[in-house]
Design goal:
The structure holds 2 protein chains of 2 kinds. Chain A is α+β, with helices and mostly antiparallel strands. Chain A is built from 5 helices and 6 strands. The model of chain A has no long low-confidence stretch (mean pLDDT 90). Chains A and B meet through helix 1 and helix 2 of A and helix 2 and helix 11 of B.
Chain lengths: 161, 382
């Protein structure tokens, strides 16, 4: 992977100037490369990783991982039905996977009720969906490589040879 | 109580007072740290924890766990094509520090001279003296902080027993390409001067492949190769290093080691063995990160007008601060007092470090950025 992407994946706020210095290139070149990645869709968006457990005023959200069994369609395979599923705004992630079921769908809702409703009334009723198994998420420990826990840091001696 | 004359002579240098000043101050951004800012990769820590759970709490053989020596032997074979027998030619030490101490005590007879290119890591000279040797310092400041064949030849005489070579170098980050090392090696072979090669920063070489000294023609039998896990694997606190060399030297070192240290703590050895198996990817990732910071800091220091040769390895920069008209120590002290940024005065690494400071970029990008803001303010104030 291009080093620019590697840097941005870790720190979406890294400035063009800093990146240029880090990889020993001209800022214009870096800017151009980033624009290109954005245009091609290689860079889709920039966002903050938020630990919602620490946000007091935020409404607690409920998340569920749903295993979905699907009857594939002729010529289209899973694509069409996957699109119908992931287009729902309630769906935050959707993966086609190998194993005993086909799609892993992550759904977010305000409470248990809204998520259950979504599964019962939207997801399960879709043509070609043969069955679902819903797992409510109890606690997040690590997400996208980020550990969601503030750990005390080991302090190095401020000066050493 | 009268203490040993040699020890009495070993002055805690003027730098000590400066170090104490740093340690006594709160909220300092430190660019003075000589160790990685990464935590030891989890798979290594996990192996250490697991070994404790399993009850591995005993002594190991004096030479170190066979599993670890075998791992080191394989690693050196894969990486450099070097062949060291885990039975007779590898010794596990408490960091490179112990390896160096053992090496010098093993080879020195009273009055033997030990060449030390400077600026250098702080322990080489004092440890040589403790072993009864005479450290002979080679000032490399006029040659871009590099030991040149010409410079080396000038310092060798009949009493010269060994040279302590360290590359990539702490504090300058300087390293050598194969051609340069070959010339140095030829001179050492010709004069039968042993090369003690401290290559603890070898994995952190950025612009070219690191060349292990014993891979040079004819060098293997004339080299003691020292390395460790501290810098590559961010394992400074575990204190695990190793020495590889001709069996008579390793046997001598093992004798001292068995009477003084007995063996390296087993938990560290277990963790180190795992490091060789599963953490090479982590080493590469950390190296890439250091490299970006190196480029970033170099660009920024140039903008500040602090001249700095491009270092090829380690995680140090050694910029000149001569343009400020301050001495290394004064510059460092003022920077600390006025802007709360800690660096190490170049003179900590020998008198020829005067006019320079050591900056460590083993610190987060956020820290580096903030330190640069402060450094800029400090320099603009004059």
């Amino acid at each position: 992977m291009d080093e620019i992407l590697e840097i941005l994946e870790k720190d979406g706020r890294a400035s063009v100037e800093d990146i240029a210095k880090m990889i020993h290139k001209k800022p214009e070149e870096v800017k151009k490369a980033i624009k290109k990645y954005e245009k091609e869709g290689a860079i889709l968006k920039y966002k903050a990783v938020i630990n919602k457990d620490l946000i007091q005023d935020s409404q607690s959200e409920v998340r569920a991982l749903i295993e979905v069994n699907i009857l594939p369609q002729k010529d289209l395979g899973f694509e069409k039905i996957a699109e119908r599923i992931y287009s729902f705004p309630e769906v935050s992630s959707c993966y086609l996977i190998s194993g005993t079921y086909d799609l892993l769908v992550v759904v977010e809702g305000e409470n248990l009720h809204t998520v259950s409703n979504f599964v019962a009334e939207k997801l399960s009723c879709l043509e070609n969906v043969r069955g679902t198994a819903t797992h409510f998420l109890l606690k997040k420990y690590k997400e996208d490589g980020v550990i969601l826990k503030h750990r005390s840091e080991n302090k190095r001696i401020a000066i050493s040879y | 109580m009268e203490i040993s004359k040699v020890v009495e002579k070993m002055q805690p240098s003027g730098i000590r007072a400066f170090f104490d000043l740093v340690l006594g101050m709160k909220e300092v951004i430190s660019l003075g740290v000589g160790e990685p800012d990464f935590v030891t990769p989890w798979q290594i820590r996990e192996a250490g924890i697991y070994s404790l759970e399993q009850g591995f709490t005993s002594y190991t053989s004096n030479k170190g766990l066979y599993k670890l020596r075998l791992g080191i032997s394989r690693f050196l074979k894969n990486k450099y094509g070097l062949e060291y027998s885990p039975d007779e030619e590898i010794l596990i030490t408490v960091g490179v520090s112990e390896g160096l101490d053992l090496a010098l005590r093993t080879i020195i007879n009273p009055g033997d001279k030990i060449l030390i290119p400077q600026p250098s890591y702080v322990s080489y000279g004092p440890v040589a003296e403790l072993a009864g040797g005479i450290p002979v310092y080679i000032d490399t400041s006029k040659d871009g902080f590099k030991l040149t064949p010409g410079l080396l030849a000038k310092y060798i005489d009949k009493k010269t027993k060994a040279i302590v070579l360290n590359y990539p170098t702490n504090p300058t980050g300087v390293s050598y390409r194969r051609g340069e090392l070959e010339k140095i090696n030829k001179i050492l072979l010709k004069h039968k001067v042993l090369c003690i090669s401290d290559e603890v920063y070898g994995d952190l070489t950025y612009d070219f492949e690191h060349v292990a000294f014993p891979t040079l023609p004819g060098a293997r039998k004339n080299t003691l190769y020292l390395n460790g896990f501290s810098k590559s694997y961010a394992m400074t606190g575990w204190r695990v290093g190793f020495a590889c060399g001709p069996k008579e030297i390793i046997a001598g070192m093992t004798k001292i080691h068995q009477y003084t240290i007995m063996c390296v703590p087993i938990t560290g050895q277990m963790a180190a063995a795992e490091a060789l198996v599963s953490a090479r990817r982590s080493v590469e990732q950390m190296k890439r990160e250091y490299n970006r910071r190196r480029e970033f800091m170099l660009a920024e220091l140039n903008l500040l007008g602090l001249k700095c040769a491009k270092p090829q390895g380690a995680f140090y920069l050694f910029p000149s601060i001569k343009s400020t008209g301050l001495s290394s120590l004064d510059f460092s002290r003022k920077l600390l007092e006025e802007e709360k940024v800690a660096v190490v005065p170049g003179t900590a690494f020998g008198p020829c470090g005067e006019g320079y400071i050591r900056i460590s970029y083993a610190s987060s990008m956020d820290n580096l950025r903030e330190a640069l803001v402060r450094l800029k303010r400090f320099i603009e104030k004059g």
